[in-house]
Amino acid sequence: MKGISTFIATILLIAFTVAVGGIISLFLTGFTKTQTGTAESIGTNVTKCGGISIDILSVTSTSIVIANPSSQTITSITLIPNNGTSITGPSSLASVGTNTTTWTKGTNTSVTAYGLCLSSVAVKGVCSSGESCWQ
Fold first, then answer.
1. Beta bridge partners of 125
2. What's the domain range around 104?
3. Are 111 and 96 members of one domain?
4. Which of 9, 31, 49 is the last residue in one of the domains?
5. 3-state DSSP call for residue 85?
6. Which of 21, 65, 80, 128 is least buried, going by the fewest C-beta atoms within 10 A?
């Protein structure tokens, strides 16, 4: 019984190797394009949201007034006093907008406001006892 010649076996092995390399190359090219697009989108958002924070204008015994001095809308806003209890804030704060949220100050000595700029970049603001915003 005869097998295939060494020459034919070598050609088939090389052809198989080139085919597998081509398939891997196509996969990696598509994967790289997807990851590059995602990174570019995140980078653009970070650039647009750079330096943005939530301004806490005043904290009284019954209310917290926050402002968005930027040109971007801030969403998913949560207010958290130092006792850790989450206070529901506005769902979003338009550019150059303000909002007043009702609360009871009690023994809290600070409030931190958290939100998202362009739905992906975290922003925050803080007001503590002794600052001009704390009344």
1. 113
2. 55-128
3. yes
4. 49
5. coil
6. 21
Residue 119 and residue 59 in one domain: yes
Question: 23 φ, ψ to 5°?
Answer: -65, -45
DSSP H/E element including 134: none
Residue 77's SS3 state is: strand
CB contact at 8 A, 78 and 114: yes
Reported for 43-46, long-range contacts at CB under 8 A and 24+ positions apart, including other chains, are 45/117, 45/118, 45/120, 45/121, 46/121
* Within-domain flag for 133: no
Report how many domains make up the chain.
2
In a shared domain, residues 24 and 64: no
Matching residue, tokens 């301004």: 55
114, 44 in Cβ contact below 8 A?
no
Token couple for 93: 């704060």
Cα–Cα distance measured from residue 111 to residue 118, given in angstroms and rounded to the nearest whole number: 23
